Amino acid sequence: MKRVTLVLTLALAAGLSASAAHAQTLKTIKDRGMLSCGVSQGLPGFSSPDDKGNWTGLDVDLCRAVAAAIFNDATKVKYVPTSAKDRFTALQSGEIDLLSRNTTWTISRDTSLGANFAGVNYYDGQGFMVKKSLKVNSALELNSASVCVQTGTTTEQNLADYFKANNMKYEVIAFATNDETVKAYESGRCDVFTTDQSGLYANRLKLANPNDHMVLPEIISKEPLGPMVRHGDDQWFDIVKWTLFAMVTAEELGVTSKNVEEKAKSDNPELKRVLGSDGNFGEQLGLTKDWVVRIVKLVGNYGEVFDRNVGAGSPLGIARGLNGLWNKGGLQYAPPIR
Amino acid sequence: MSTEARKPPPQIALKLRRALGGKAGWNGVAVQLAFAAILGWIAFEIISNARTNLANQHIAAGFGFLRNNAGFDVNQSLIPYTGSDTFLRVFVVGLLNTLVVSVVGIVFATVIGFIIALCRLSPNWLLSRVGEIYVEVIRNLPLLFQLLFWYLAVLAALPNPRQSISLLGIAFISNRGLVIPSPIGESGFAPFLAVLTFGIVASLALRIYARRALYQYGHMIRIWPYVLGLLFGLPLVTTLIFGLPFTFELPQLKGFNFAGGSRIIPEFVALAVALSTYTAAFIAEIVRAGILSVHKGQMEAGSSLGLSRGATLRLIVVPQAMRVIVPPLTNQYLNLTKNSSLAVGIGYPDLVSVFAGTSLSQTGQAIEIIAMTMAVYLLISLLTSAVMSVYGWRINRSLGA
């Protein structure tokens, strides 16, 4: 039902509006007093609600950081849970301002959906999870297996490619939501559950006996996950892109939520530029001078956010790996703020 | 007080009707044409405006995507399909999956519905209570809930393929579905098929001939020995001459799953069972109402002729009841077809799941895909109603004669 409503909104918006004026996203958000942020329906570590309904996760913290930069208040976010199938329609129809939902950046999504990727907040790759009792040690031993997958994902296509390339047969059972997929895997309908590797670790925590299941070593794809905004509003695109870069830059400069006030008083010219006592970069974005201070103080730098949600300080305990800073062997690299 | 004559009431409704070509015949045609033109213009404006806006937002539009590679696999397909086929083929695969589950559902729902209705009407206390409980329980629980019950509670509890339940060593039931031997055509297949077709056609012709003889001349012709010979004897003879028409490929456990044989996936079973049991509850009530609408004198007349209760129902009551049953029965068939889109919830690859779901999110072309899907459901529903209308018309005609 929700899906039909979304499509109808999109059809009406496209069919009736005189011109699709989406160039006012920042103003719309300020008038509304709330950022509308599309997240997943519950993926621990990335975006999931706790028992009180508070959303946490790496993707959620990006929404919070954008809200912090605009309102100086990280709580002014309305979270809209979207399924893998509905997420793009929700963005196109204007129901959400920002899609921050473990979404893989691909050329077709970037060019044909009327949306832009504003960066990569998690470098991931697709993997497989199986029951240990199957005694499988490699994805190449999965011939004739039944595989559970969430529909409408790049995962579904990579899976087809991988089994075809390796001349293996398989049976795919595709479900609309992550939870349905995990449930079917747990009930034994499938031998294998496949999604992005971070998602495998996150979903393993949801299983009754996480230790009975193992993630196979193969990574079969590149999955750069990042936030998406609608096409046609460059200012808004810049804000989301640079919010992410600001978090990475802050980590690089050693600015944390604890020491940001103190660092803001520093005489270091780079810190002065980034934290707003020199230059007016924030204003050029349509924000305030102290935008980076707001983000880091209220949400944290990229490293803090990573540790808290998916890294060492979380139940997932994922190593930084590809998501480390560029000068520490990872891929996270922000262009200079100057 | 004035004593002027009252004005006649303004006949707006009548004028409007004339203007639209109602009573005035051809006079209103111009207005109707203008009205249609305005509607067409509005539709054109909406579509062209949508196209412009989508283009401005760089959202892909048009139906060109149907020729692109889909790149994902589908669990059940009645026609050959691989991940490198087009979205158009995905559309057909999804459509066929929807149709097959709907047809199977309709057949079983009708059979179960009639049986339950006869139970409810039965003078046997136990039978009628069983029928009543069935109807009250099934129709008062949400369909999605029943679907999940069959899928997650009943079918998921089956053992895995390595511990599957063997039926005489040729068919196997596991949580991957039911695997049965699949027939493979051999040299004798073509003559066998030809003879079988001939047998069926000849039997039907015999039946028509026998009926005519019965109705027009009152001759009772016994045709069943000939039919038996045509349907079984002839094929047997060709088999002896040309060899076996087909052999069976037995399923065998290989690796994770069964190789060889045909498989019915549990998603299909869950969906077909849930749809047919649910709709059967409504059909049972419709059939019961239809039978009760036939005057009880008909039943008594049947008994007084010495017909058994079953024969009275079959020959006298049900044909008359069908007149009342068919229209609401059509509604139930339409409901069942549309409810099959709940397949999304359990991963059965129907039209909504693979086309309006997966294909939509792979291409992002929501407007085109949703429009196509809606058009297909509309078409299926209209076709179903048309077939049922013809059936209803034939019943009325035969009763009127």
TrEMBL record, chain A:
InterPro entries: Bact_solute-bind_prot3, SBP_3_CS, Solute-binding_3/MltF_N. Residues 34-263 form the Solute-binding protein family 3/N-terminal domain. It comes from the Bacteria. Residues 1-23 form the signal peptide. Keywords: Signal, Transport. The keyword Translocase does not apply. Pfam families: SBP_bac_3. The keyword Signal applies. Belongs to the bacterial solute-binding protein 3 family. This is Amino acid ABC transporter substrate-binding protein. It comes from Bradyrhizobium iriomotense. The lineage of its organism: Bacteria, Pseudomonadati, Pseudomonadota, Alphaproteobacteria, Hyphomicrobiales.
UniProtKB/TrEMBL annotation, chain B:
Keywords: Amino-acid transport, Cell membrane, Membrane, Transmembrane, Transmembrane helix, Transport. The chain crosses the membrane at residues 24-44, 90-117, 137-158, 190-210, 222-248, 268-287, 369-393. This is Amino acid ABC transporter permease. It is a multi-pass membrane protein. Belongs to the binding-protein-dependent transport system permease family. HisMQ subfamily. CDD domains: TM_PBP2. It comes from Bradyrhizobium iriomotense. It is found in: Cell inner membrane; Cell membrane. Gene3D superfamilies: MetI-like. InterPro entries: AA_ABC_transptr_permease_3TM (IPR010065), ArtM/GltK/GlnP/TcyL/YhdX-like (IPR043429), MetI-like (IPR000515), MetI-like_sf (IPR035906).
